[in-house]
Amino acid sequence: MPALSHDDWQAVEPLFDAALALAPDQRQHFLDTLPPEQQRWRATLDRLLQAEAAAADAGFLSRAASLAGGTEGRGAGTPSWRAGQHVGPWALIEELGRGGMASVWRARPHSGDFQREVALKLPHSPAPGWLERLKRERDLLARLQHAGIARLYDAGVDADGLPWLAMECVQGRDILAWCEARHASVRERVALLLQVADALQYAHSRLVLHRDIKPANVMVQDDGQVRLLDFGIARSLVAAEGDVALTQLGQRPMTPEYASPEQVRGEEPGIASDVYAFGVLAYRLLGGASPYAAAAPASRHALERAVLEAEPPAVSTAARDAATRKALRGDLDAIVAKALAKEPARRYATMDALAADLRRHLAGEAVEARPPSWRYRAGRVIARHRWAVGASTLAVLALVGTTGWALQAAREARQEARRAGAMYEFLTGLFNPLREAQPDTRNRDVPARRLIEEGAQQVLGSLRDEPLAREQLLVDLGTLTQQLGLPDLSRQLAEERLHQARDLHGTRSRAYADALLGQRDLWESAGRYQEGFQAATEALAIYQALGELDPQRLALAHLAVGGFGARLHAPVSADIAHLQAASELLAPLPGPNLLGTVYEQLIVAYLGQGDMESAYQAGIRGVKANRTQRGAEDWKTAASEDQVGQLALLTLRPAEAGSLIRHGLQVLRKTMGPDVVILARGEANLALLEMAAGAPDQAQAHVAEARRIASLPANRAMTVFGLTVEATALDVAQQSGDWEALREGCRPWGLDVQAPQPALRIRIQQACAAQAVHAGDLGRARALLDQGQAVADQFFAKVPARRAVLWLREGEWLASQGRAEEAAARWKQVLGQDDPSIVMFRAQAFSHLREAHALDEACQALARRLMQQLQAAGGEKLLATPMALLRGG
């Protein structure tokens, strides 16, 4: 066969893939019915298919014929892949599947202790562009950390230059087979589609299109968790020119049955194409057939014509049984039809919008896809509130409804069209601000962070004549700027969103309540708990007055009220009740949500009540929720592991603490980079862990790294993280006897220590009081201790263990004045607190009593019991510092 050029192969490859997807007895018909402009490749395709068949008959993996022009990869004599073969660091186990150009193998590392199994993607041959294509897939997947997307673990090139990708090995069935095996109901199938929609929306928010959504690329695990696979032809929304060359369609890398009309026409696909493919998937999953079932068996040409011209019948008509047809008729017919609209502008603008309609359907609410007739809207209200609707209400609706809903329909259609147009203009303007016919592409490789920053600056000052488009951009860019460590911009966007919602919708609207809660993370990180509590309380009242049914909205409101309340005052049962209400709303929902965050707030509430074990158990539930919803390698899971690691140390589980904190930090660095502010907290936690283990030098090194991260310009606004680091630095200096470091650390505080969290205030006050006593500045020490007692009286009146460190320092103050008996009484009070979270303070108190010759038998018994607890919890290896204090060594 003559050598194919790179451009020739770009035309042949999608046709070859399409032919391979057919049964062998259908391939000849496929070749016979190729459009005239593609008949020139018939002989080449015929030879490739013959080579494929011969390779299969010979019992080894098929691969494309050797092609001239490809410089990367193996030569024409490459042997077939086989079980036991080594590829880079991997040993192949078994083939999981294959396409025209690549195989996927289950594999594991052939050496080392870490033996995670992966799905290894391997090209069959050195086809032109393969190395670039796998590099692109690697780069796209590296952006995506979501429970609904199979994760990328590694990528590389083997000794012969052949590229490979190591991905999560998903155990399960494709979504159609999974549902058929379980005879899944329509409602269960919709729940799975919502998981797919959430995963796609996440990918789109990271500027990644999938472009090959089909059942084979949607796996469902035994626990019902969806995993979206194969971003092999995915495309970045900000792709460089070289990416366009790799994936351009005249040359159309796609699965024909799931390709959108614009893809069939050879146009560049966008989010609307993923929405369309999702619609085909939904049609297949709900109706049991293809929307183009009549055309699909004929030929690819016939199928493409159907995609371009034929209106699919309602999905309910495809269902095999009457019950399913009834369940699909109406709302689901309309939702699927809107997703399958021929014109992109008539489809849902985002996957979020589509998912919102599916959720409205499940909740019995009116869906946006249905024509907004008064009869339909009224019927939905009556269905939800049938016992509250009387005959007089129906009569009024009948009289006034028709004109009002018709006008509303026209108004909504015009608004949606304007919104879509404004969004398009805004996005294209980021890349072509001067609206030139041939935009300048010299800066096409602009980093996503800078692009989002510029977009945020632009939206703050533009689109005021298109408020609906601006509203959505304020929401999306607010989230992105916060995740990228741009707190000032995120705050400006959140405040502007609130002002616009007030002006556009009023202060009793759902949009205004949403905007109030949109600032929750910013208030929390800045320690603005009073503002957060007031706004969350107002938002919850608005939702309740409107009869809000969306569980995620209600959960966020309860989460914010309970979480801010637990920080603003001594936690009470009402705070915990709000948080438990949030967990009950979120637990049944599919896909990633705020359930893990709810457990984080429960930790704070339980700690405020002094219930350390309940706090730890809540943290463990949070870690499990995040692992289930997001995966073990997600940054949110990692952050919860770090937090629970500190609780594990405070509940005398130091080995577990080390494992959780270190794994959490490893994942955070991998997914978020080396400077994300949350790493400062993790480094501070490691410092406490090393200090307990008797390694002050390592502890100080972790403090130094935590300070570096917290002091970066992008992180300074996150004051709580910075204060946590400084409090830890003071603890480490005091426990290691580094009085000079403690003096320098206390210098900025003076006599009035201010911190948003009461526990942080006490940590700083007690450490600086210890330094003042050591320096002989007893007046300053007394003032700091009095402030600490006032904080404890307000927030920890029922939690004596939180006062123990203040009693410890007060004993030191009393001893410095020669009041030995009073000092000993205070230290005995500390030693008598049977609380695992204060073992260091208890050990220090025992050491002071021994030095003061004030030990009695009761003190000795308490010390022996504490020593036994420390020995059982980890012994010298993990708890050397408190054990040394108890021994006097």
Automatic annotation (TrEMBL):
Keyword Zinc-finger: no
Record InterPro entries: Kinase-like_dom_sf, Prot_kinase_dom, Protein_kinase_ATP_BS, Ser/Thr_kinase_AS, TPR-like_helical_dom_sf
Lineage: Bacteria, Pseudomonadati, Pseudomonadota, Betaproteobacteria, Burkholderiales
Keywords: ATP-binding, Kinase, Nucleotide-binding, Transferase
Molecular function, one GO term: kinase activity
SMART domains (alphabetical): S_TKc
Binding residue positions for ATP: K121
Organism from which the protein derives: Pelomonas candidula
Protein kinase domain ranges (all copies): 90-362
Name of the featured protein: Protein kinase
PROSITE patterns, alphabetized: PROTEIN_KINASE_ATP (PS00107), PROTEIN_KINASE_DOM (PS50011), PROTEIN_KINASE_ST (PS00108)
